[in-house]
């Protein structure tokens, strides 16, 4: 299975930007669709964005559409999440996952999660 390590989180004021990265190792990275999820304190984990194995298809939660951009660089075994116009409600631990896209729906791989990176957005 692929192993994933997230980085790039931090503290930022509302309206600011952060770029998260997820570096993969193990099984061939380019064969997986990739996604970002987040979990805020006391809340359920929620889907943020996904990208197909080729990078040709991207999907976003309504709450981040127009503000976040997911991308991947298969040569560097990396998937990124550019987050602009950050809001306090974006505060969460962000996780990446290596899974699959079926009929425009992302299917997570329970054995392919990273450790997470904390994003905190102040008012």
Structure description:
- The strands form 2 sheets. Strands 2, 4, 5, 6, 9, 10 and 11 form a 7-stranded mixed β-sheet that branches.
- This protein is globular.
- The protein has no helices and 11 strands.
- The mean pLDDT is 94.
- 32% of the residues are buried.
- By secondary structure, the protein is mostly beta strands.
Quick tags:
single chain; mainly beta; 53% strand
Instruction: Give the helix proportion (percent range).
Output: under 10%
**Structural class computed from helices and strand pairing:** mainly beta
Strand content: over 45%
User: Rounded to an integer, what's the Rg over CA atoms?
Assistant: 13 Å
Q: DSSP helix count?
A: 0
Q: How would the global form be characterised?
A: globular
Sketch the topology as an H/E string, one letter per element: EEEEEEEEEEE
Strands, count: 11
User: pLDDT average, as an integer?
Assistant: 94
Low-confidence stretches: none
Please give the alpha-carbon distance between the first and last residues: 39 Å
Biggest beta-sheet profile: 7 strands, mixed
SSE blueprint and pairings:
Layout: E1 3-7, E2 10-13, E3 18-25, E4 33-39, E5 46-51, E6 58-60, E7 68-73, E8 78-83, E9 92-102, E10 105-107, E11 117-122
Parallel strand pairs: 2-11
Antiparallel strand pairs: 1-3, 3-8, 4-5, 4-9, 5-6, 7-8, 9-10, 9-11
Tell me briefly what this model is.
The protein is 0% helix and 53% strand.
